[in-house]
């Protein structure tokens, strides 16, 4: 059977819909080399960076299992300059998306200007408006005015042909989907949104030791893994409906199996990012994900991602009311 797993994000052709989520296996050159070597990962997303290097939050700041993670890294990163060099080195073999997470509007604008002044090695910029882990810094994309202010200033910078997307936090209320989309629609140059960053400020405890499993922010951290998938899918679906077609949606959240990739694309994602699963299984886990996804397509007799992207049916045809609490 003829299968084509390629897809496009911001007009860039990717040979598979799988890339890493920012923050996972992408902080150091050594980690990025591994991402680069995987033929199943079609692009590299760098660790969300600031202008200067950051140590991040005190350890332990990550805890994970095969299906769940909580983190409060606090934007530990090697600086924009470092990742610009990464882009220069690795964009020769695959697209590199630079993730930027300035701690203020000014820092974000200054970083975007630096990227614009660089020799355009990166394939695109993913502006992270949703980090939940820096003490006393709110998640920008929950403040729609602040988000608009940053985007006004960022889109004034001439990035040439380099596309820019944003990484959003999860929204939970339909009003917030609409308010966020209303802001984002003001920027015709916006090329993608990544839905979702971790579900911020969850708490995971070890009942044996009676302790939080991570240290910063009294144990509060961003949640990832299987149970964030329904929230991620809802965000992908809603933003696909609310944003113009030229804005791609990158699905992120709960991608642990090939079927999860399928579901994200069914909800409208152009590609997916993998976080917890990649962190827990390393690069060696990626071929399994890729082959499982391929098998789903074969089973369903789909040839390309366009055959099912965004084609989620919302009126179930099978009457299955046996679990209806009121029946
Ligand atoms: C972190 O560095 O704390 C994670 C970044 C993010 O969730 O955006």
- Largest β-sheet summary: 8 strands, parallel
The amount of beta strand, in percent, is: 15-25%
Number of contiguous helices: 9
Structural class: alpha/beta
> What's the N-to-C terminus distance?
44 Å
Strand order of the largest sheet: 3-16-15-10-9-8-7-4
Report low-confidence residues grouped into runs of 5 or more: none
Q: Helix and strand succession? A: EEEHEEEHEHEHEHEEEEEHEHEHH
Q: What would you call the shape? A: globular
Helix coverage percent = 25-40%
Total number of strands: 16
Rounded radius of gyration (Å): 19 Å
What ligands does this structure carry? succinic acid
Look at the structure and give the mean pLDDT.
97
Overview of this protein structure:
By secondary structure, the protein is an alpha/beta fold. Helices cover 30% and strands 19% of the residues. It has nine helices and 16 strands. The protein has helices at 29-37, 80-90, 105-117, 144-154, 174-184, 229-242, 258-266, 276-281, 286-299, and strands at 7-9, 12-14, 18-20, 44-45, 62-64, 68-71, 96-100, 124-128, 164-168, 190-195, 199-203, 205-206, 211-212, 220-225, 248-252, 271-274. Strands 3-16-15-10-9-8-7-4 form an eight-stranded parallel β-sheet. Helix 3 (105-117) runs parallel beside helix 4 (144-154). The chain is globular. The termini are far apart. Succinic acid (SIN) is lined by residues 23, 48, 72-75, 128, 130-133, 197-198, 222.
């Amino acid at each position: 059977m003829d299968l084509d797993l390629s897809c496009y994000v911001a007009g860039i052709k990717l040979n598979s819909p799988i890339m890493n989520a920012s923050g996972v296996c992408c902080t150091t050159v050594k980690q990025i080399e591994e991402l680069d070597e995987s033929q199943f990962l079609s692009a590299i997303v760098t660790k969300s960076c600031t202008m200067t290097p950051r140590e991040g939050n005190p350890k332990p700041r990550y805890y994970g299992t095969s299906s769940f993670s909580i983190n409060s890294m606090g934007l530990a990163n090697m600086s924009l300059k470092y990742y610009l060099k990464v882009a220069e080195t690795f964009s020769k073999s695959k697209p590199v998306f630079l993730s930027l997470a300035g701690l203020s509007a000014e820092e974000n604008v200054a970083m975007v200007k630096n990227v614009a002044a660089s020799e355009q090695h990166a394939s695109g910029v993913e502006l992270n408006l949703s980090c939940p882990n820096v003490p006393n810094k709110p998640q920008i994309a929950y403040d729609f005015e602040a988000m608009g202010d940053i985007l006004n200033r960022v889109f004034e910078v001439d990035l040439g042909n380099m596309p820019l997307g944003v990484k959003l936090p999860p929204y939970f209320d339909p009003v917030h989907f609409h308010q966020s989309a209303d802001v984002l629609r003001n920027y015709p140059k916006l090329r993608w949104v990544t839905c979702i960053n971790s579900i911020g400020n969850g708490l995971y405890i070890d009942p044996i030791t009676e302790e939080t499993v991570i240290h910063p922010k009294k144990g509060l951290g961003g949640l990832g893994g299987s149970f964030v998938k329904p929230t991620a899918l809802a965000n992908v679906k809603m933003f696909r409906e609310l944003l113009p077609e030229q804005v791609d949606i990158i699905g992120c959240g709960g991608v642990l199996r090939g079927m999860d990739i399928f579901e994200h694309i069914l909800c409208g994602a152009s590609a997916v990012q993998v976080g917890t699963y990649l962190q827990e299984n390393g690069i060696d886990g990626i071929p399994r994900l890729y082959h499982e996804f391929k098998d789903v397509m074969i089973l369903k007799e789909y040839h390309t991602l366009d055959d099912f992207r965004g084609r989620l049916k919302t009126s179930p045809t099978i009457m299955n009311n046996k679990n209806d609490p009121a029946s």
